[in-house]
Write a sequence for this structure.
């Protein structure tokens, strides 16, 4: 029951100090979802043994190059590998035209169906749902239209205890009904309370991706109580004027969002190339929100299972 994020790229604008432009992979029960696709993303997939064939959905936050310039290369590589599974791409207006121009003038042909879904970055909307999770947009404030993405695991059913079914003489054919909370009926036709047969379900897990954006406290209700938040932290507070001018956030501001939303853990990334040592950003964030970690490339951050109390 995997729910984990692997960082492929965490630098802002350009590669520097061994860091690469933005990209992450969310793995939910071995189905993978790519979030942003900066230059070199597919190389980083190779570096960190990401199973790219398990990616069927790609979520692009905005059309700045450090978040999308790796996309055409990845798509054409899929074709070279004779991919046939459909791919869904979600992103702001303009993304389809950008891909069409690149495909046309490079004379590239895709071997699979590509469905591009245009999202509205000005409001929170449910844009995708499958058996694992639902995905909603998070409005951000950047120099061009941009949105984050909130990934929520689907609510789980009760966990049946097989030994209890045997103990109470209940046919295993009833297991689906019991998972939904119904009583079990034993061989004598007697009803057995559901709480004798089951354990509480696991809590649905959640992850939010917020990059790039100016400090935007009105997104806090959307992030309330989530397990894991990635929030850009391009600058330290002494460069707050740079953050305002470029519509980015400081490490302190990212931590303020995490603190005020009561998230469980904060990851900061999208580091400016002015910072060789990232600890200055980490220390600033930790001063506001203790459970903060750097989004170091190649690191996988897992959200563990826990039962409803």
């Amino acid at each position: 029951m995997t729910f984990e994020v692997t960082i492929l790229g965490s630098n802002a604008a350009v590669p520097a100090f061994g860091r690469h432009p933005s990209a992450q992979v969310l793995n939910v029960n071995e189905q993978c979802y790519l979030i942003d696709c900066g230059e070199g993303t597919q190389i980083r997939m190779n570096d960190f043994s990401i199973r790219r064939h398990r990616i069927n959905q790609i979520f692009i936050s905005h059309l700045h190059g450090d978040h999308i310039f790796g996309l055409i290369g990845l798509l054409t590589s899929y074709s070279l590998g004779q991919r046939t599974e459909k791919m869904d791409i979600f992103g702001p207006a303009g993304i389809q035209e950008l891909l069409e121009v690149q495909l046309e003038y490079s004379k590239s042909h895709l071997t699979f169906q590509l469905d591009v879904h245009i999202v509205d970055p000005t409001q929170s909307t449910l844009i995708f749902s499958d058996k694992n999770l639902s995905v909603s947009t998070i409005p951000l404030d950047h120099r061009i239209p941009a949105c984050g993405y909130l990934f929520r695991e689907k609510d789980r059913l009760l966990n049946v205890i097989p030994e209890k079914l045997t103990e109470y003489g209940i046919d295993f054919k009833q297991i689906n009904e019991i998972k939904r909370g119904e009583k079990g009926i034993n061989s004598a036709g007697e009803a057995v309370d559901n709480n004798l047969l089951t354990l509480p379900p696991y809590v649905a897990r959640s992850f939010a991706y917020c990059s790039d954006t100016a400090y935007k406290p009105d997104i806090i209700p959307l992030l309330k109580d989530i397990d894991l938040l990635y929030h850009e932290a391009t600058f330290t507070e002494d460069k707050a004027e740079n953050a305002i001018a470029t519509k980015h956030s400081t490490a302190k501001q990212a931590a303020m969002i995490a603190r005020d939303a009561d998230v469980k853990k904060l990851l900061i990334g999208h580091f400016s190339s002015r910072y060789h040592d990232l600890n200055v950003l980490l220390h600033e964030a930790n001063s506001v929100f203790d459970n903060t970690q750097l989004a170091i490339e190649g690191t996988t951050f897992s959200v563990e299972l826990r039962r409803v109390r």
